[in-house]
């Protein structure tokens, strides 16, 4: 297998202090990360935290209003958007979906459908596909033009647990076979694809980042999710020093509340990677978003 993490690996995209502003409001700000060939970067964060905005900025669909984005010359991007503007009242087969936005050779269509296990469904109507089949069809469409970078915006949405594991295994196979870089947006705040090299946690800015803590060795995890899941999924443990309240204001560790984050927010005291083990009620903004704001006593110390 190729050594994807060697230091000489090509950087495909890098963002430095990137920010996007609309109607006087910063949608994301101060975003730094890069994606290299063969690398998997996963963006997580609550709804509206700027994941899609960041991904679109990385691939050049949006221009940053501050900071810089650099892309390797001639970068080919395969993009699976979160939502697809398709008129569902019109008949549309899987193979027609493949060429909606540009021509492909028969061989390219068949190869991509075969790689995603969808060749037998080439003539099926897209409207009738299951959630997992639909995501596979979108993946086939994205890989057909042999991208250097694959951007997948919530590729496991509408897919059950076992379908999610199968999709992550497929994404891993695509990375291993083609060596492309992958930017993945995850709908889950704590469970990410096990192969993820770097998790970037957004909440209008980079709250924290690091490697997921691979738990496949843990007997408790194996008991809970089974061996197959342990190979595909990993837990990203993280811990924030402030909480984003439902009304958009920010509750800080000292109990003060401000309209927005401080420049140094999201960073922990001293250690590399900002990764800590934590309890489900550690008080990071994500939990309070999920569970409802329940007071200052659950804030980080
Ligand atoms: N063109 C725009 N003009 C104004 N606001 C926008 C625009 N695009 C996105 N937003 C806002 O920016 C914020 C970030 O949106 P974005 O879609 O990037 O978040 P997200 O983290 O991907 O969310 P989700 O998990 O719900 O998909 C949201 O509050 C959204 O309403």
UniProtKB/TrEMBL annotation:
Belongs to the ABC transporter superfamily. PANTHER family: METAL TRANSPORT SYSTEM ATP-BINDING PROTEIN TM_0124-RELATED, ZINC IMPORT ATP-BINDING PROTEIN ZNUC. It comes from Sinorhizobium medicae. This is Zinc ABC transporter ATP-binding protein. The keyword Transcription does not apply. GO terms for molecular function: ATP binding; ATP hydrolysis activity. Keywords: ATP-binding, Cell membrane, Ion transport, Membrane, Nucleotide-binding, Translocase, Transport, Zinc, Zinc transport. It holds the Pfam family ABC_tran. GO terms for biological process: response to zinc ion; zinc ion transport.
């Amino acid at each position: 297998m190729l050594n994807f993490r060697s230091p000489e690996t090509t950087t495909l995209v890098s963002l430095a202090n990137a920010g996007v502003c609309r109607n006087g409001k910063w949608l994301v700000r101060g975003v730094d990360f890069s994606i290299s060939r063969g690398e998997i970067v996963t963006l997580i964060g609550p709804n509206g935290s700027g994941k899609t905005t960041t991904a679109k900025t990385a691939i050049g669909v949006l221009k940053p209003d501050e900071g810089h984005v650099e892309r390797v010359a001639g970068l080919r991007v395969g993009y699976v958007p979160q939502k697809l503007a398709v008129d569902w009242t019109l008949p549309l087969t899987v193979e027609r979906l493949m060429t909606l936005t540009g021509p492909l050779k028969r061989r390219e269509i068949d190869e991509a459908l075969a790689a995603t296990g969808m060749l037998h469904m080439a003539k099926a109507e897209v409207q009738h596909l299951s959630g997992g089949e639909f995501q596979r069809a979108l993946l086939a469409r994205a890989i057909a033009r042999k991208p250097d970078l694959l951007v997948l915006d919530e590729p496991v949405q509408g897919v059950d647990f076992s379908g999610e594991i199968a999709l992550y295994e497929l994404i891993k196979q695509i990375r291993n076979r083609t060596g492309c870089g992958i930017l993945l947006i995850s709908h889950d705040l704590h469970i990410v694809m096990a192969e993820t090299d770097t998790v970037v946690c957004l909440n209008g800015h980079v709250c924290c980042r690091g490697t997921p803590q691979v738990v496949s060795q843990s007997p408790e995890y194996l008991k809970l999710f089974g061996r197959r899941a342990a190979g595909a999924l990993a837990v990203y443990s993280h811990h924030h020093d402030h909480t984003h309240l439902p009304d958009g204001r920010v509750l800080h560790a000292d109990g003060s509340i401000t309209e927005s984050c401080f420049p140094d927010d999201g960073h922990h005291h001293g250690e590399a990677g900002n990764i800590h083990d934590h309890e489900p009620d550690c008080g990071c903004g994500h939990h309070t978003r999920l569970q409802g704001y329940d007071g200052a006593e659950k804030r980080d110390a």
